Amino acid sequence: MMKQFDTPATAGLPATTVLWITLVCFAISMIDGLDTLMLSFIAPLLAKSLQIDHATLGRVFGAGFVGTMLGSMTVGPAADRFGRRPMLVLALIVTGCFTLACAFASSAGTLAALRFVGGVGMGGAIPPLAAIVAESSSPQRRSSLVILMCIGFPAGVVVGGSISAVLMMQYGWQSVFLMGGASALIALIPVLLVIPSQSPSRPQSVAQNDAPTARAMSVRTSRRPQAIGNPLGQGRLPATLALWFGVLASFIVSSFLISFIPTMLNMNGVAPARAAFGAIALNIGAIFGALVISVIARRMEPFVPVVIGFLGSAVLTFVLGHIITAGNVAFVMLFAVGACHIGCQLTFPAIASALYPVEARGAGIGWAMALARAGSIIGPMVGGILLSERLPFAQLFTFTAVLAVCGSLGIALANRWRLRDNDAQMGSTASVVITDLEMNHGK
Predict the structure, then answer these.
(1) What's the gap between Cα 178 and its chain centre?
(2) Is the pTM of this model over 0.90?
(3) DSSP string, 311-361
(4) Tens of pLDDT along 12-67?
(5) Rounded distance between C-alpha atoms, residue 370 and residue 298, angstroms
(6) What is the C-alpha separation between 363 and 376, in angstroms, rounded?
(7) Where do runs of H (alpha helix) occur along 51-125?
(8) Terminal CA-to-CA distance of the chain, rounded, Å?
(9) Within 13 A of 59's CA, how many CA atoms are on the CB side?
(10) In whole angstroms, how far apart are CA 206 and each of 2, 10, 194, 209?
(11) Would you call 217 helix, strand, or coil by DSSP?
(12) Cα(135)–Cα(138) distance, integer angstroms
């Protein structure tokens, strides 16, 4: 027996259900933040324990980033075909198991291989997460809730970094990997209990002569694989390429800043322990900026605020290059750059959710996040080369500001060229079909 509930699209699922789904996805996003920068926290102890040099350590970093990029590219489209929750569960299992195994690595090569496979898992978690939150909420609240979910990433960096500092000093670097792997596996419990098993189908007409109903989106429980949507098809190519350009440029900027701000502060006379707070200031600023944009996104889509935010970060970054030696003022400026730039980056899954219909949403988010991971690889590489050439900080930050402008241009063009009918496809009624068995078992 099937039970069908028709709820207004402006209401979406019950508020408590949406809240629990968002909180679970927020927690997994925190785990992603911890996992991504876990190696940064323990790098000094790890290098000493395994007796590896900086170049070898860099290859271990790179293996993890390449894994996350591959995971975003593959798991996102797979989530469109096989369902959001199954692929999320698989991603968490892979992440948890291989992160736990990192604690027992005895060589750089083994650690790099484990980080690569674990990265595939964690990189694959974000696309289904963003799609789950987007499709659980009403169109009016979709962007703000996806942004709130993504705030978990910098929150995980800040909280995870603090916990890691205590663990690694008392129990060694292995304890940080054990914490990260265990967190991913424990997260499976709320995922299976809270995240709905339904996978959205393509909008279809259910009443030829009833316009509101004909525009309805049917969400059906189906074990049958759906066709993988094409983010580049049906006129979406220009907007997709513009989004990719903006994502890549902006992540080159943020990854360079997060990676080298402590080093650059130290080069200007700031003590190493205090210089480390430069990266923390960027992430705390990111949380603040994303919270502000999530409030704005309740009234408008995030495209225009992000364009303005990136332009603001370009100005602030340019100024930062001239005042980086100014002590506390530099830390205030880093907070502002984090709010304007990294805070805006946390809207990318929400922006991708708005660009693509449900049948291509997982792939669209996944490919955009793959470009973000690519930027995270390019930024430190290029930044390291420029720093080794002893380029003046004013010129280095001017180049960074230009890339921030490029990020703003990409998002502006994506907004200009995007199709405007994705929300219309959701219709004024959401038809949710749930089996008695799923209702009784809380699925």
Answers:
(1) 23
(2) no
(3) HHHHHHHHHHHHHTTSTHHHHHHHHHHIIIIIHHHTTHHHHHHHHS-HHHH
(4) 568 888 889 999 999 999 998 888 778 877 877 887 888 877 677 777 878 888 89
(5) 27
(6) 20
(7) 54-82, 84-102, 108-123
(8) 16
(9) 11
(10) 17, 20, 29, 9
(11) strand
(12) 8
Domains of the chain: 2-198+229-426 (1.20.1250.20)
Residue with tokens 């080159």: 252
| CA atoms within 13 A of residue 310's CA, in its CB half-sphere | 30
Burial of 325-345, coded b for 16+ CB within 10 Å and e otherwise, reads eeeeebbebbbbbbbbbbbbb
Structure tokens at 122: 């964690």
**Residue 231 is which amino acid?**
P
- Considering only the C-alpha atoms of the chain, give the largest distance between any 2 of them, rounded to a whole number of Å: 73
Residue entry with tokens 């989004």: 243
Taking Cα atoms as reference points, which of 20, 37, 249 lies closest to residue 149?
Answer: 20
What residue has token string 């663990």? 167
User: How many Å is the Cα radius of gyration of the chain?
Assistant: 22
Give me 332's structure tokens: 């205030």
Which tokens hold the place of 305? 């605020």
| Pick from 158, 183, 192, 81: nearest CA to 127 | 81
